[in-house]
Structure prediction request, 409 residues.
Amino acid sequence: MSHKKKIELLAPAGNFEKLEIAVHYGADAVYIGGKNFSLRNFSGNFSKKELQEAIQFAHRRNVKVFIACNIFPRNHEISPLKEYLSHLAQIAPDAVIVADPGVFILARNVAPKIDIHLSTQANTTNIESVRFWHQLGAKRINLARELSLSEIQAISQHGEIDIEAFVHGAMCISYSGRCLLSSFMTMRDSNRGMCSHPCRWKYAVVEESRQGQYYPIGEDSRGTYVFNSKDLCMIEHIPEMVSSGINSFKIEGRMKGINYLASTVKVYREALDTYYRNPDTYEVKPQWRKELAKVGAREFCTGFYFGNPSETIPFYQVDQSNNHQLFIGKILRTIDRNKALVEVRNKVFKGELVEFLAQKGPSREDVILDMVASNGERLDYAQPGSLITMSFNSHCFANELLRRHEARL
Prediction:
């Protein structure tokens, strides 16, 4: 499909706080889940009432809301699923995300006015499958992760449906995320929202007659992550992603924290806006790469997009010396120009050199000049979970994140 408008930036929102952060840092749309029927049952998610409040909050800010309903249900779940879809029909999200054909038909019949988006779990890999789903009424398809950009471009040129693809985040080692490791090893079904992520565990080989002697599979003496993939990062390739015909760039991570969410949304927002201002002079800014590295747990790769096998080999070791900045807290509200109420997430000291993750542009360096507890006591340090009034040299804003300056790491 040809682009008549800017590509949508689609961000994860595992709870209401994450929704606020995603919107604050520039998401055009968010995908969220209810307490059941999505593939991230441990991300907090939204009650029925909270779903309605989330939609209202986002719509007031011109942000779309897509609700994940992408499990593969069993027979006993069909009746409550119908009830759930009926509730969605009343609160009117912009779309519901499904993977199972039966759920697709239920959504179309129970909530006919809501757009249906097809999840990557549906493993859509070719134009005929795209046409099949489009004829059934799908408005958008998140194509299988295994496709290259050239394959995506071929589909987008001959299709009549919006194409969504992941641009950043963790990748599942199994085929389009359909995995049974968790079911076998912990009796938690990853295809029904309860994955225990055994692909991220550390493994070693033990020989039958040498019980207790463990041999690392990789060259790392600590063992290896035999199934563990690198994380996807396409910040270096925005022009190629745009030219492939993708309509929506999707960031992975409903279970990730707000530090990760704020950084990734901010960086890809700036990258897209920079590209559209002048595609011919577009360049990747070094601070974008640096910012994403601060919140990444693993090495980055380009996945299957360029057909390079070295990009999809397992990731064998964890970098213990990565440059993560320690997340200090979130500004709940400003009190004066340079004074704010901060929800502390990690221990912080008066006089510390810090930085604000600005909504736009580079981060701002500052110093904590003063800290006052809710009872009026002045503090030399604050503990996680406390609400502290902090004073700074510069202006600060609600929903900005406060982090320890990298010079202190």
